[in-house]
Design brief:
By secondary structure, this protein is mostly beta strands. The protein is about 10% helix and about 55% strand.
């Protein structure tokens, strides 16, 4: 059972499921964070689309917010929505810049 930030850190570890991404909060400098990136495809109104999501640990020293910038595998994304889940995980819904 996931009980808090320490448990999520195991999943975020780049040696397990995670990878290192560059995160730039509005008004602050870029920082490297361990995260889990998924870019699931979906069909919306008959059109295929990709819905990129970044899962990060909630103890960051800043609060993720819309318009923050994330670079994953050399591709830049904008945070469209942040969704804390109450267990220490924050899902960030991304839009490609």
């Amino acid at each position: 059972m996931i009980e808090g930030p320490e448990d999520w850190a195991t999943f975020m570890d780049p040696a397990v499921f995670g990878e290192v991404v560059s995160y730039t909060p509005a008004g602050l400098g870029a920082r490297d964070l361990p995260a889990i990136f998924t870019a699931a495809s979906a069909e919306v109104a008959g059109t295929s689309t990709v819905s990129p999501v970044l899962a990060i640990g909630g103890v960051l020293g800043f609060t993720p917010a819309p318009d923050d910038v994330v670079t994953v595998r050399g591709v830049e994304y904008r945070v469209a929505d942040d969704q804390p889940d109450g267990t220490g995980l924050v899902r960030l819904i991304l839009e490609r810049v």
